[in-house]
Amino acid sequence: MCVPDSVAGVVINFPDPWPKKNHRDRRLIDDEFLCLLASRMFAGARLEIATDHVDYAEQITAVLQRSPHFESDLDVAFTRVDEGRVQTKYQQVALAEGRVPYFYKWRRNEVPAEDHFPIPKELPMPHVIIRLPADTSEIGRHFRPAVVEQESTYIRFVEAFQSFHDGKLLIETYINEGPILQRIGLEIRARATGEIVIGLAEIGFPRPTRGVHLAIAALVQWLRREFPSLVVVQSNLQGEYADIPHKRD
After folding, report:
1. pTM for the predicted model, two decimal places
2. Is 201 exposed, middle or buried (0-12, 13-18, 19+ CB in 10 A)?
């Protein structure tokens, strides 16, 4: 996480061009991304980009030229030659295949940028303890990919994986709560007492943001629809997600 006016330079080497038409919204460099960079880079900070994809180069050129926060160090938007540059393996492959890269050398100017990207507050590591008439294998058999949208948060439950070791489930989950995008694992594991614990797996060092708490709340609500007798024994979900009905036997 970078606070405003803290970044001295950004180098982006050959970002994924996502060439398929219906995947282009996944490209890193767009108007919103440049607004985010502008809010984090201080005046004079350098922005260097390299790509060998013609269509992506056209997009990069367009968004840079219409941004009020960046100026080219060159007389043109890009150059096809960057003398003295250490060539990456990818660049060598591109050149060998006849793809001459586009090199962008821009700089953050002094035009103020509004911060539309507040850093999400990190909450306690979330967990919910439940009782229901199913084990993790049965839960896994009920799983279907799903999408949840609430307020400004988009959550997609992608797939369920089960451990051969202890039977716990890992729910691959994508969370977009702009500007933070996280691909995380939600863990469903059984206790010896028969209770089920739902929490955040530590794979990839995820941040326990509001969106993660919302994702776990949505997972519990899905389980309640599948198993109406589900009982929430304990929950530390925060804020508006703390009111999942629960009780103790």
Report:
1. 0.71
2. middle
